[in-house]
Predict the 3D structure of the following.
Amino acid sequence: MATRHLYLARHGAADAFGKLTDVGHRQASLLGERLAGIPVDAVWHSPLPRATASAHELARHLPDVPVAEAAELIDHVPYVPSAAETPRSWAGFFDGYDEAEAASGHRLAEALVARFAKVLDHGPRPDTHEVLVTHAYPIAWLVRHALDAPPSRWLGLNSANTALTVIEYRDGLPPTIVMFNDMSHLPRGLRWTGFPDSVRP
């Protein structure tokens, strides 16, 4: 049975201008070391500089693996919930999103699912392994989709910088979430960046 393995990772830690920091480079390199034992077919990344730099940093550990941009992986709000769907802790977060922005974000989310959340037909090679270097919200959307959860359930599915989430897709079966937000490749001092201090363990 053909299986598509997606290895989803948020970019490394970045500064206020979106540039990867020294910590972010180290995180991405450690993620690359972890992925080096997997037969990776491709590394896809968001067009934003922090994701692009992270992808190229981790790809140093994956010789001859192609690295390419995927527009669908850009940072975006995938779904703007109604007031009734919005948890109290998120109240006010979506103020200022007009209908056009919300619709544009949801189109991106649908394109993300259409491109990556399915099995590929690769003929004699049934299994594919792809790394997606993106942002917290697209990862949350793909996890929500894999769980067949309501659209608003992407809220609160946070990912730390270079944490690893793995989803497998097989024909005729629901997706399998193998792991979510795993940071075992990072030493303690490099974990949980990208989370507010108040919610870090």
Q: What stands out?
A: The mean pLDDT is 94. The beta strands are 3-10, 42-45, 67-69, 127-134, 164-170, 176-182. The longest helix spans residues 99-116.
